[in-house]
Amino acid sequence: MYLLAAIALAFMTVSCDNDDDPVVVLPNSATFTVTIENVFVAKEYFNSGTTGLILPGASESFSFNAGKGHYLQFGTMYVKSNDLFYAPSDMGIALYDMDGNAVTGNVTSQIYLWDAGTEVNEEPGMGMNQPMNQSGPNTGTTEGGNVQLITDTMDGFTYPITENVISVMITHDGGTMFTLTLNNISGGSILPSPFAPGTWVVHAAGQKPMFTTGSAASMGLEKIAEDGDNSAMDANLSSKSGLVSPFAPGAYSVGMTNEIFMSGGLASDALEALAEDGNPSGFTNVFNTPVGDGSPGALFPNNSYSFEVTGEEGDKLSFATMLVQSNDWFFSADNIELFSNGNALTGDITDMISLYDAGTEIDEYAGAGNYQPVRQSGANTGMDENGNAMSEVYLNANVPEISEMIKVTITAN
Known about the structure:
- The protein has about 425 residues and is mostly beta strands.
- It has 2 domains: about 25-40 and about 245-410, Sandwich (Immunoglobulin-like), CATH 2.60.40; about 45-240, no CATH class.
- It is about 10% helix and about 30% strand.
- The strands form 6 sheets. Strands 4, 6, 7, 8, 10, 11 and 14 form a 7-stranded antiparallel β-sheet that branches. Strands 16-15-18-19-23-24 form a 6-stranded antiparallel β-sheet, covered by helices on one side.
- Helix 2 runs antiparallel to helix 3 (about 230-240).
- The protein starts with a helix and ends with a strand.
- Residues about 1-15 have low confidence and may be disordered.
């Protein structure tokens, strides 16, 4: 009876030529090509924002996340001028020191008064083409110069000492969160002045997101430095800022059950290595080489992994690939049926893909965590979470929709 039952499950008798010659049909089977594409839109910077008008005696604070290797740049107009602004050097302020410790405290010594080189300077506070005196924006005489320190302009005017006008403090609020506070202390200086609305941006080392010393100012910087109009710079920076992440080599399985992980269950050591460090070596079936590359590697935007599987009716596809800018998040297909009513699955299946948390490492802010692969000192270095593998529902605000990160298609060959 056991043998007859097994045969009944494996075959379907559909017709007989005669009583002695039954005809049986094997279950549907096919070879499938699975393609996993990284569809993140490339971004230049990590995050950006704006500051408002800061009157003498007032201050403004803003908070942001940043990881090792991140810098902060900002700019705000010294209003009683034609085109002067306060900002760090064009490289910004390093947010971690050489030992990986968060930078905190008074950083005013890294702030300078800059001349945008876009409008001819008039006597500070007296010029008829300065914001508090002019009839409208952009009314001064075009200078056609380059961005430089006001101390290098030699325009013959006297300006207050920076430390008597502005005070800048950074606090580390724990984890990857920082707060910067701009204090307008110009009330006791030789020329009290408001600071106009400005912009800020978190970026990588070597980038100069707002200006380059010795080069012409952008339109966005000109508007900030001449008229305190931060709209153009904000639009430019915000369009170029956001989370971007590679995917790591992953693993797949085809069969009646998901051999990669069990939703709601404890992660295996193999899944922990895959989800925390992009190491799929604990699995039998892996994909690790981007299409067109000659060797294994991470999957960057506009590139794809591709692999083939063979399955028959009743089989399910599962796979997992790490979202690298995380602690233990991975994209997964969890038991996707390869056949439906006898028809092989084909087409875009992105809506069947979920983002999971392996439950093995405490989450940090995506793209900034210092225990995420691109910033950690080595594999398996984060804080243990002791949780279960679950669909991730507590996503940071900077994490896009799944369809804006990954695209998965399957083709029945």
